[in-house]
Amino acid sequence: MQPLSSIGHSQHSLESFIILLQQHNVTALADVRSIPYNRRLPQFNFETFAFTLNSSPRRVQGS
């Protein structure tokens, strides 16, 4: 069984966030935010976030 972890994007750039995922061997990510948008950090809006991460070897699922 694979471990389940929790991560927040904080104020990281999208590139820094991806590096964190890689460092911890994360291969799947579930976005469980009730409102998956961020005015101050638009790189973490669900569509942008999912497109970028799905272009890499990991999967993203929205809530």
From TrEMBL:
<protein>
    <recommendedName>
        <fullName>DUF488 domain-containing protein</fullName>
    </recommendedName>
</protein>
<dbReference type="Pfam" id="PF04343">
    <property type="entry name" value="DUF488"/>
</dbReference>
<dbReference type="InterPro" id="IPR007438">
    <property type="entry name" value="DUF488"/>
</dbReference>
